[in-house]
Amino acid sequence: MKITQVRLGRISVPLRTPFKTALRTVSSVEDVIVEIHTDDGRIGYGEAPPTGPITGDTTLAIIGAIQDHIGKSIIGMDVDDFEDVMQQVQKSIVGNTSAKAAVDMALWDLYGQKYGIPVYKLMGGARKNITTDITISVNDPETMVKDSLIALQRGYDCLKMKVGINPEMDVARLKAVREAVGNDITIRIDANQAWNPKQAVRILNAMQEQGLQIELVEQPVPAHDLDGMKYVTDRSYVPVLADESLYSPADAATILRMGAADLLNIKLMKCGGLYNALKICTMAEVYGVECMIGCMLEAKISVNAAVHLACARKVITKVDLDGPVLCSEDPILGGAVFNEKDITVSDAPGLGILGIENGRITYIN
Fold first, then answer.
1. Residue 33's beta-bridge partner residues?
2. Which residues are catalytic?
């Protein structure tokens, strides 16, 4: 199964409501689609979102990295030489993890198709069903309460609350939501690097002292400040989840060795795809540290790849794969079934993606 073409396109999918964090506000998913074609007529699908404020990857950067470097370097290679192809993807260009992730998942898709096996079974096959949280954008307390109650009506019982804009309001925001949803609903929070270490400890401990029952906090301090994150981890009543601090397997090794966080958040767009994500899972297993599987604002192709990883490995105990359910429509055919919080992986070979609705993709090459 030799690679003959790497074709790129773009899709646009509107969100149900604007997505607001401490870093940005977004109203639609604008992603790059990768199709890898082979000499036996098969197509593998991948996807990458431009997330400049987090990964540094813009739309044109993703396209350029694949067209000028990654794609060219794998043309003519045999998918059956899987390790060689994967290493070529990773070494073809420095950085550009989102572009690498899109190509990586398309290659896993082809590899599974060749042998008639779903990717999650290739990687471990731990389960078929997972349950995701849903993200509540940072807003005034009244709006966050309204959005939380709507999420409960849709069947969600785990809310990921964005915080960090006007930190002094964060306790009030969470208190209002907790009072509205009751104590049986799980609340986890994401500060998106918004606090300094001492501020984070003060805010987090105040939340717990007021009985807010926060399950975990995601990336409370700037990504580069591992010492600061360890400071919070050692002193906070709330467990700390490393997100923007964790890109590569090497980052995971450093965080685990330092004890800088209680949990690790794996995102394919940060680590460069499933190939590296599996390495992070293995290290976390060795250290006895649980992982979350997360996503950016992505449509179904790339989130579907993350579903396969989550269904493959038991070390992934927490799921934040709400990208498709935040969208107002789904133009992707096949793949995992997203029934609000309940996600069921496909048993079709590869990643199970069948294509994209007619007219919804604009091809670049």
1. 9, 47
2. 162, 267
